[in-house]
From TrEMBL:
This is Acylaminoacyl-peptidase, putative (ApeH-2). Keywords: Hydrolase. Residues 371-565 form the Peptidase S9 prolyl oligopeptidase catalytic domain. Its EC number is 3.4.19.1. Residues 37-303 form the Acylamino-acid-releasing enzyme-like N-terminal domain. InterPro entries: AB_hydrolase_fold (IPR029058), APH-like_N (IPR054035), Peptidase_S9_cat (IPR001375). PANTHER family: DIPEPTIDYL PEPTIDASE FAMILY MEMBER 6 (PTHR42776:SF27), SERINE PEPTIDASE S9 FAMILY MEMBER (PTHR42776). The gene is apeH-2. GO terms for biological process: proteolysis. It comes from the Archaea. GO terms for molecular function: omega peptidase activity; serine-type endopeptidase activity.
Length: 569
């Protein structure tokens, strides 16, 4: 595992990649009837598992696409599965603790969120023309109402449905909604312009996470009483950690609090001594607390904490010698939180750009970063403006400026890598929005890079808008602060394709409906027409999302072989 990349044979490279992507991912969802429920890739695909009587039991029979928080009093959980070869057209299924699975009536739409109770399943679904709120009750499907496209349902009970999204047309705020089963919907916010997410429903009380008291900076937990229409702050005695992001489970009294790309776990305000890194779910079962955890250099494990504070591993994982991690803040006109993962044997450097853009690279195991580091590369992962995890003010900085300030952040981090002597040769790589940033960077800043690797990239925002469904047109209207066609064109990589100077590896899935293939093929034609150096790999019958180990290999193997060829030149 410590062999420098360019000394590897192709067979070694393929073996390293397969071994790395087969390292399981674990994320705790909650519990059913006091049985731990979690997501895992233990058998090579994303599935729902239960820990029953000390044994790990797989509840789903093939890869799943969308999951939800399990209801602790019930013995089943619904989920959505892609049924059209990666096109993200979904059908809803139910799995129970017996390992039985049932498909139920559902429309063939893109499902972006779902929740349930003992009698019904509620979900949001997007067709080409609209996004709607649906309910399935007694096996019967009904469409309750149309909703703004960037809306997500989070909980339901016998009277109400709650959810959140960009509901009032302001792309720099988020509101929550309360709906009933007649299709009536009320959009609410504790303060105009705030970011508020409703996530938990207990009777007439809605639990919210909002930044309305500290706008743009940090979040806290609140309760909205549907009957009195009052907001109350949730006070947690003894909790003093200054978190930027926070999640509170009112049933289990557990807090996951996050700051600077790492999270901590608290039991009713008292911190649990978890390892350094990121918590990906926690739940209480009897007197014990279960949590899943990983870091950039240590794969996921599931731990159990006894009532006396003893921590033990209940679902283990491989030990991997990845390298060393450093967290820095690189200054542009903002501070750019950045993770530097260095190999013990120095190699060339890849600036890895995360997708989203409203996402982040935090200190957790990363399926796309780990193989690069193990193959001998330093990886530097900037959380450019627009990333989550650093407050809504930072997150919204790229709205109306996609490919502007965020690209400047990425270029500055590249300069930091050169100036600090981490590397003399540096390339850029990303997937989805990260693929977009890669193509834009090599076109707008062609002298900064030695190579580029773009997966699932956006090549032309205008053409993508025309090809998208309601959800992703809504996404683009938020990102560009409206249907701003001129800005979309100005910030599209195809506008700058003639400037490209470095070798490119472009990897795209045939059935991707988030970032469609057709605009990328037009970008490739321009590369060919102007005599650029490139590789183009189309993965058949695969979509945007990675559901299986084989999907990850299909995407990553061309990238690693491309890098090996560059090293041999």
């Amino acid at each position: 595992m410590q062999i420098q990349f360019h000394y590897m044979e192709y067979s070694e490279l393929i073996k390293l990649l397969e071994e790395t992507v087969r390292i399981p991912f674990y994320a705790i969802l909650g519990k059913l009837k006091n049985n731990l429920i979690y997501l895992a890739t233990s058998e090579g695909e994303i599935s729902i598992y239960a820990l029953i009587g000390g044994k790990n039991v797989k509840l789903t029979k093939s890869p799943i696409a969308i999951s939800t928080r399990p209801k602790s009093s019930l013995d089943f959980i619904p989920f959505a599965r892609d049924v059209e070869k990666g096109k993200e057209i979904h059908a809803i299924h139910i799995a129970n603790l017996k390992g039985e699975e049932f498909q139920i009536e559902s429309p063939r739409v893109r499902i972006s969120s779902l929740t349930y109770d003992d009698k019904r399943i509620v979900f949001t679904g997007s067709s080409q023309n609209e996004t709607s709120l649906y309910v399935i009750e007694n096996g019967k499907l009904s469409k309750l109402t149309t909703i703004p496209p960037f809306s997500f349902v989070t909980d339901v009970n016998e009277k109400y449905i709650i959810g959140s999204g960009v509901l009032k047309g302001n792309p720099r705020s988020q509101e929550f909604f309360i709906a009933d089963f007649s299709g009536n919907i009320e959009i609410l916010t504790p303060k105009e312009g705030s970011v508020t997410n409703a996530y938990y429903l207990m009777g007439n009380k809605v639990y919210l996470i909002s930044d309305y008291e500290t706008p743009g900076e940090s979040y806290w937990i609140y309760i909205y009483d549907i009957e009195s229409k009052k907001y109350d702050r949730v006070e947690i005695p003894g909790f003093e950690f200054k978190a930027i992001e926070i999640y509170y489970d009112p049933e289990d009294l557990l807090i996951i609090a996050k700051k600077d790309g790492e999270s901590r776990l608290f039991d009713n305000g008292k911190e649990i001594n978890t390892p350094k890194g990121t918590i990906s779910g926690a739940t209480r079962i009897g007197d014990e607390i279960y949590f899943s955890h990983s870091s950039l250099v240590s794969p996921h494990k599931i731990y159990k904490v006894s009532r006396y504070g003893k921590i033990e591993v209940v679902v283990d994982n491989r030990k991997v010698d990845v390298g060393e991690v450093e967290y820095v803040k690189v200054k542009t006109d903002v501070e750019v939180p950045t993770w530097v993962i260095k190999r013990k044997i120095p190699g060339n450097t890849i600036i890895y750009i995360h997708g989203g853009p409203w996402s982040e690279v935090d200190n957790s195991w990363n399926l796309l970063i780990a193989p690069l580091v193990l193959a001998g590369y330093n990886v530097i992962a900037p959380n450019y403006r627009g990333s989550t995890g650093y407050g809504s003010k930072f997150m919204f900085m790229n709205i109306g400026d996609a490919g502007g300030g965020d690209l400047r952040d990425v270029v500055k981090v590249r300069d930091y890598a050169i100036e600090t002597g981490i590397t003399n040769k540096v390339g850029i790589m990303g997937y989805s929005y990260g693929g977009y940033m890669t193509l834009l960077a090599v076109g707008k800043e062609p002298d900064k890079w030695d190579f580029g690797i773009a997966g699932a990239a956006v090549a032309d925002w205008v053409e993508m808008y025309d090809l998208s469904d309601s959800l992703f047109r809504g996404f683009m209207e938020i990102l560009f602060n409206g249907k701003n066609i001129d800005l979309m064109k100005e910030r599209s990589p195809i506008t700058y394709v003639r400037n490209v100077k470095v070798p490119l590896c472009i990897i795209h899935s045939q059935n991707d409906t988030r970032t469609p293939l057709n605009p990328v093929m037009r970008y490739i034609q321009e590369l060919q027409r102007t005599g650029k150096t490139y590789e183009f790999h189309v993965i058949p019958n695969l979509g945007h999302a990675i559901y299986k180990v084989s999907d990850a290999i299909d995407i990553l193997l061309p990238a690693l072989i491309f890098l090996k060829k560059l090293e041999e030149q």
